[in-house]
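Chain A, query sequence.
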Amino acid sequence: MTDNNSDLRELAIKWLNRPSFEMKHDLILEGRSGEEYKMDMMIEPKIISKTDEDKLLVSIADIKKSAGTDIIRKIELVRQDLQLKTLLISNKFSVQARSLAKRSDVLLISRSELEACLKTL
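Chain A, predicted structure.
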């Protein structure tokens, strides 16, 4: 069981940390445009071939208000430039943000969804 006051990053690490995956923290990645992006984490498999399709970027927005479409648009631009799958973790998301994320191929998970997943581990 997780504590409601647990740090969102700690919860994400606990959920994403699996023996068959390598987790890298606090990365600076260069996009195809030449722009650099600071990402919270990247997960990639240890065993199978490591292509860009196997990697998952993780961005954590530990904010009190619902993450909105502004954050989704920013993450989508980063995702497109880096050409990598992207997961955004936040305390909660607005309905509009969830709708935009579905159209943008940005994966979302909220704190409550994360906590529910951790209960099943």
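Residues 8-116 form a domain with the Trna Endonuclease; Chain: A, domain 1 fold (CATH 3.40.1350.10). The radius of gyration is 14 Å.
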